[in-house]
Amino acid sequence: MGFWRRVWAYWLQFASWLYPYCHRAWVFIRRFNHRYQVVRWAIVLFLTVAVAASAFFTYKAKTADVENLKTNLKTVTQIYDTHNEKAGTITNKGTFVELNQISPQIRNAVISTEDRSFYSNPGFDIKGLARAAVSYVIHHGQISGGGSTITQQLAKNTLLTQKQTFVRKFQEIFLAVEITRHYSKDDILTMYLNNAYFGNGVWGVEDASERYFGKHAKDLDASQGAALAAILRSPSFYNPVDHMDNALGRRNLILSLMVDNGKLTQAEANSAKNEQLTLVNNYQQSDEYRYPYFFDAVLDEAYNKYDIKEEDILNKGYKIYTTLDQTIQSQMQGSFKEDWAFPANAADGTPVQAASVAVDPNTGGVLGVIGGRGKHVFRGYNRATQMRRQPGSAMKPLAIYTPAIEAGYHPDSMLEDKLQSFGKNKYTPHNVDEQYAGEVPMYEALAESKNTAAVWLLNQIGVQKGVASAERFGINIPKSDQNLAFGIGGLSQGVSPLQMARAYSAFANGGKLPDPHFITKIVDATGAVVVDNTNTTAKQIITAKTANEMTSMMLSVFSSGTGTSAAPSGYKIAGKTGSTEGDSSWGFGTKDQWVVGYTPDVTVATWVGFDQTDANHFLKGISEQGVAPIFKQEMQNILPNTKQTPFKVQDAAQEDAANNGGSTGTSSGSGDDWLNDFQSNVEKGINGLKDKASEWYNSLKGLFQ
Predict the structure, then answer these.
(1) What is the pTM of this model?
(2) What tens digit of pLDDT does each residue of 479-491 get?
(3) Quick check: is 335 catalytic?
(4) Residues 6+ apart with CB under 8 A from 517
(5) How far apart are CA 441 and CA 413, in angstroms?
């Protein structure tokens, strides 16, 4: 007792010492509050914030697409091809069924577990929110979930993100009230059960019933219904396929809750608890996402170009009309499944990657696209549209030969083909085969991809003309890359197959550069057109004459140049090959290999290489060896399905050979033949003088730069 008396005495002494200070503090607070009305202003501020927040969240709820919620959930986003025929669907929804097609046992289990006051609450539950607030305090400021009614969960799953924040929680409550105003409780429960995720890639109660029990949702008993309701808590932890013990424990708890809620008798619950869960999988997953890389690109374009969110595309039942040609896309996918058409894997098993895109050169519409080999990842890396790699010699027609034609050169103009250095840095390009002819006609330099002749020509016309030309074709050249090396593909950032297909489409389209696209029109679930891209235009970047002369030279690439092994049998195409050298210490091979080919109806750009190149991951052998088989396979499958419009020009190499053969043959004595030969020789002489004059001018100009 003595000890406690001393404690009490000390406490009284401390309290008597503290009291004056507390009293003075209290007096100060009272006077301060009386003078400045702090409490009153705090109440006013709180009410103002509350009213403003309520107005904001009410506005957000009123402007949300609540009225069309059920319509959107019942429909899926459909993709149509260039012929307006259905090509597939984009959705994360299961099979939609009405409430009378869902077993009462499922409904009762879900309500007993998730929201006992579902049929009486206004969309939110005060007690549930209070429990969530207590949980927030206990978990030191972490929003741990809970407190959400079925209506709130429906709002979160269909109209909001899954991120746990206070703002989202308030939005959820106001949206739940708005949903309750527009729909009956039965409608809300129907939408919730059809939109819920049940694990193993299954959405909706009907598909979940088929996936786990091999039955329709209307045929499930109390044990099975409670087991499905159990999955909603955590699909990865409570689904009976992966965690049967967890599923049974949770099911039994839910059966007890159903007894407490008056939905089952104790005897019925005991009988259901003793029932074994026999798993039967009758779920047939839809194959509607049959063109994965194309559909991924559609989603990307809808988001990046038209600002339509991914969750809206997946949930709001749009009709998306595209440029897809199902035959061409199917043929490209089939070609990429042929392993023989690709180089062998690296020694460690890493596969060679590839990408390809087919474009309508007249409209810019993408007809087909493949973003890689191997297993597709939903909205994963698409090499055809997102990758940037050095184009090698595929850059030459864009950066060197086109501006040379515009500067007055001709397909048969003679170019220097010898080993030499250029500029102050003594840049010295080499031909791949280390063979130099001294001089070659321009069409031959292009067809045989002679680096020395190409760089000599770029030096003659000037690097800036080459840069300006490449940028007209839609390829940006950074300041640091603006040198002679860029003309033969030396770029720090690189290009994508889609960029190359677009650029070469200008040659096929009479000099007009199209705008590549996947989407032509988007219509929402109400029938309103939200995107209209049907009237596409193309920009005239070079003359039709220049485009034709370039095509005549690029026909030679596949008839007698570096593209002969990639030429499709029985078809005439124009274009260019390209490759980039690897480190000389690796051995003989390349990092990237390209073929870009076109007809008046289609442009195809194909790339082959490793994602990461090093001494153990590069393409061995000559530059066209790796990419030629897959490109040839693609074109032989694609071209029979096009209009097969003929070229307007002849192969420059074949035409020159025919002309030279005619001039050296014996004369027939015809006056007309003599006159034609004379005119041809005069024209060639004049063109030769023009070329020499151009060379002299550029040489003199270079002395003063």
Answers:
(1) 0.73
(2) 999 999 999 998 9
(3) no
(4) 301, 323, 364, 365, 366, 533, 536
(5) 5
